[in-house]
Amino acid sequence: MQAALFDNAALMIMLVGALVGIASTLVGTFLVLRGVSMLSDAIGHSIVFGIVIVWLITHQQSGPVQIIGAALTGLLTVFLTELLVSTRRVKKDAAIGLVFPVLFSAGVLLINLYARDVHIDSHTVLLGEIGFVWLDTLTLGDYRVPQALVWMGTMTLINGAFVTLFYKELKIATFDEALAKALGMAPSLLFYVLLLLTSGTAVAAFDAVGAVLFVAFVIVPPATGYLLTDRLWMMFIHGSLVSIASSISGYWLAVFWNVSIGGMMAVMTGVFLLLAFLLGPRYGMVAQVLRRRGQRRVNEIRTLAVHLYNHEDGPEQWAENVTQALREHLLWDNAKANRVVARSREQGLVECRGQSLVLTEAGRDMAREILEPTRNGTGSLKTAT
C-alpha cells in the first residue's frame, strides 16, 4: 500500500513538473526568439502583488479567478516597463529592473500587513514545493486529483490551443514585426496575449515549482531547442522533451541526493542545455570544432591542387611539384605536407610519379574551379604561386 502511494505521488510530481515545462516552453519559445525572455523573470516576481490583491478582494487563494487576476499583474508589469521605455530616459533592461522589484516589494509588504494568518507565503511563491503537490487535491468525479495538476494541465491546453490557432501569425510577428503589421495581424496585441498567458502559467505554477524555478522552465528548454534546430515547430518538440526529461531525471536525482525536487528539475534543464551547447549536431561546440577542422583539411587540399596546377607543364614543374618544395612555398612542415598529399591521393586528386606530384583530371578540375574567378579578363588560369 505504501509502495503504491509512493509510486502514485512520484508520478504526480513528475507529471506536474513536465506540464510546467511544456506549458512554459509553448510561450517561452517566442520570448526567447524575441530576445525578451527576462520578462518572464519580471512577471514571475511581480505576480506576488497580483496574488495578494486578488486575495484581498476575493479571499481566494487558488482557482481561475486567482490565475486571471494575478496574470493581469504580469501585463501591468509589461505596461509599466514599456511606459518607462517610451520616455527614452531608461533602456528596457533598466526599466524591467525598476518595475518588478517595486511590484514584488509591494506584494510582500501587503502579505505582511494583511495576510499574516493566510497561507500566502512569499518564499513559497518564489520557490514552491513540488514534492507536496499530491497532497493538495480536489475532487473530479470519483477521483482526488492534485490541484497543481489540474491547473497546469489547463494552462498547457490553453497555451497549446493559442499557439496552434495563431501559429502563422505568431511566427511572422516574431521574425518580422513590420511585415505582420503590413498584413494587419496586430503583432502588439498578439504579444500582450502571449504575456498574459505567460503570467497565467506563472501563477498556476507557483504552488508547484515557484516563480523563480518557473523562469528556468520558460527560458532554458526553448534555448536548448534553439541550439538544436532552426525550425520553430521543432523548438517546441525539443523544449517539451527537455522538460519531460528534466522532470523525470530531476525527481529521481533529488530523491537519491535528498535535495529540493523543483531545484533539481531546474538544474537538469541546465544540464541538457549544456549538452546541447557542447554536442548539438549543428551549433554544438564539438560539431563546430569538427567542422572547422574538416574545412581546414579541405582548404589544405585545395591549396595543394592550386600549387600543383600553377606549376604544371612549366619548366620548374619537376622542382616545384615535389613534397619537399611545399615546405618552402606553402610553409608546411614535412609531416603536414605528407598528410595533405596522402589525403589528396586518397581522394583521387593527386598521383605520385617517382618524387613528383601530378594532378589527376579531378584535381585539375578542382584547381580550375578555384582559379576561375581570378581570370581578370586575361583568358589564362595560370598564376604564380
Automatic annotation (TrEMBL):
Its main location: membrane. GO terms for biological process: response to zinc ion; transmembrane transport. SUPFAM superfamilies: ABC transporter involved in vitamin B12 uptake, BtuC. GO terms for cellular component: ATP-binding cassette (ABC) transporter complex. It is found in: Cell membrane. Keywords: Cell membrane, Membrane, Transmembrane, Transmembrane helix, Transport. It is a multi-pass membrane protein. Pfam families: ABC-3. The chain crosses the membrane at residues 12-32, 39-58, 64-85, 94-115, 148-167, 179-197, 203-220, 232-253, 259-283. Belongs to the ABC-3 integral membrane protein family. This is Zinc ABC transporter permease. It comes from Halomonas halmophila.
